[in-house]
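We examine the record.
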Amino acid sequence: MQEDKKVQTAEVKIEIDDQTANGIYSNLALITHSESEFILDFIFFQPQNGKAKVRTRIITSPAHVKRMIEALKDNIAKYEMKFGQIKEPSPQLTNAKPGYYN
């Protein structure tokens, strides 16, 4: 006889302080990785000044990055169904993907 396995889910209460809730604007990302982690640097690039400043750095596991990518794909599909296709900007730098550098 096979037993039904019940998945237990725990409720997680997430808190956010006012400063974090305001968010940080980023228009560029630098993504690097090692065998055990991904490093995502979110940057604000000011073309008129030729400056770029890292606003925040996220260090996480490869498995979590993969889950984030799937969540982003799902959210992009939902966004485009509601608001229309997202237009990708042309690269600002020669031979570069918009907003991402390895």
About this structure: Residues 62-83 form the longest helix (22 residues). The two ends are 53 Å apart (CA to CA). DSSP finds two helices and four strands in the chain.
